[in-house]
C-alpha cells in the first residue's frame, strides 16, 4: 500500500508517443506524482534517460538482451533502478501493491495481460492501449468490475465522451441516445481512392493533426483506428453498436460528443494534444495544467463535418460487423489488422490490401466465446496465422 501523498505510477510503454507525453505531464507535477516503474520494448537509451530523470524502482524491457544492456548502463551510471524482463514482469509492475495508477500505453494486444493484471488488482487504469480492450472485450470489463479498478479512457475521443457524460455511470444507459465519435479523416481524406494501392508507409504516417506512433498512424490512414475506437466505445460506455456514429471533422477541435435522449448534445473541445486527455485521466475528477496550447476562437476559421466515404474507408464497417458477430470476433479483427499493418510498414503488403487481409481473416477464423486470457491469446494467435496466410496470398 502506498502511504505517501503522491500517486505512484507505472507507465507501460513509456518510450512511445503516449508514454513520453505522460512523463511530460508528470514532470510538471512532481508534487503530485512519482514514477514507480517504466517499460519499453527495445529502446534501451531512451529508457535509460527516463530512469536517470524519473528514478523509478523498476524498468522492464521485452528481451533478455535489452534488459542486460540496460542493467549494465544503469550500473555504470550509478542508478539504482532494478531491471526486469518480459511479460510476467509487465504484469508484476502493473499489479504491484505499491502502485496507485497504471498508464497502459503499449501498442497492440501485447498490452492485454498487464492491463488485466492492473484491472484485477483494482488500480486506477489509464487506458491508451485501445487494442487491449478490443481484444479483451467483456472479459476486460468484468476484470475491471471484479477488481474494483477505475478505468479512465485516454484515447482523445473516449476521454471527450467520458468528460461529456455525468459522473454517475449507472445513469448512462438511460440517458445516452447516441455517441458521436469524431474522426479527422487522416491523411487520405481527399485522396483519389483509385490511387490507394500505391500509398507508401511514409505517406500513411504523415497525419495532418496528430503526431503518433507508426501503428496508430497507419490505422488513422485506413480509418481502422476509428473502427477500433467504435468497438472501444461500445465496451467502455456499454452502448449498443447502432448507438455509435462516426462523423468526420477534419479540424480535430471537437474530440467527440454525446447526444442524450432529449436531443441535447454535449461535446468536448480542445487543441489536438494528447497531454489534455492524459492530464484529465491522471487528475480525474480534478484538473491539472497539461502544458497544452489553448483554443483560440477568435482565429478559428470554421468547424466542418462530413460523412465517411465507405469506398475510401471500407474498414470502418468492419467494426459493426465484428461487434454483431460471435464474442471474440473483435479480437480476430484486431489481430488481423496488427499483422496487416506490420507487413505494410515492412513493405510486404499493399496499403489497400490491409482491408483485404482483415476481411479474409474475419471470414476464416470463427471464434467460440473466449472465457479466459488463455482463450483470448489462443484466438489472437490463430487469427495472426490466418492473416499471414491471407497476406502471403495477396502478395504473390
Ligand atoms: P508507440 O509506438 O509510440 O509506443 C509504443 C510503446 O509500447 C513503446 O514504449 C514500445 O516500447 C512499447 N511496446 C511496443 N510493443 C511492445 C511489446 N510487444 N511489448 C512491450 N512493449 C511494447 O505508440 P503510441 O502512439 O504511443 O500508442 C500507444 C497506444 O496508445 C496504442 O494502443 C495507440 O492506439 C494508443 N493511442 C495513441 C495515441 C497517440 O497520440 N499516440 C492516441 C490515442 C491512443
Ligand atoms: Mg483516438
TrEMBL record:
Keywords linked to the UniProt accession: Isoprene biosynthesis, Magnesium, Manganese, Metal-binding, NADP, Oxidoreductase
GO molecular function: 1-deoxy-D-xylulose-5-phosphate reductoisomerase activity
Domain annotation 1-deoxy-D-xylulose 5-phosphate reductoisomerase C-terminal: ranges: 151-237
Entry annotated with the keyword Transport: no
Residues the record lists as binding NADPH: 15-18, 41, 129, 131, 213
Presence of keyword Metal-binding: yes
Entry EC number(s): 1.1.1.267
Domain named 1-deoxy-D-xylulose 5-phosphate reductoisomerase N-terminal: residues: 9-137
Pathway(s): Isoprenoid biosynthesis; isopentenyl diphosphate biosynthesis via DXP pathway; isopentenyl diphosphate from 1-deoxy-D-xylulose 5-phosphate: step 1/6
Sequence ranges assigned to domain DXP reductoisomerase C-terminal in this UniProt record: 269-385
Reported cofactor(s): Mg(2+); Mn(2+)
Transmembrane segments: none
Reaction catalyzed: 2-C-methyl-D-erythritol 4-phosphate + NADP(+) = 1-deoxy-D-xylulose 5-phosphate + NADPH + H(+)
Domain of life: Bacteria
Enzyme class: oxidoreductase
Function description: Catalyzes the NADPH-dependent rearrangement and reduction of 1-deoxy-D-xylulose-5-phosphate (DXP) to 2-C-methyl-D-erythritol 4-phosphate (MEP).
PANTHER family: 1-DEOXY-D-XYLULOSE 5-PHOSPHATE REDUCTOISOMERASE, 1-DEOXY-D-XYLULOSE 5-PHOSPHATE REDUCTOISOMERASE, CHLOROPLASTIC
Protein name: 1-deoxy-D-xylulose 5-phosphate reductoisomerase
Gene, per the UniProt record: ispC
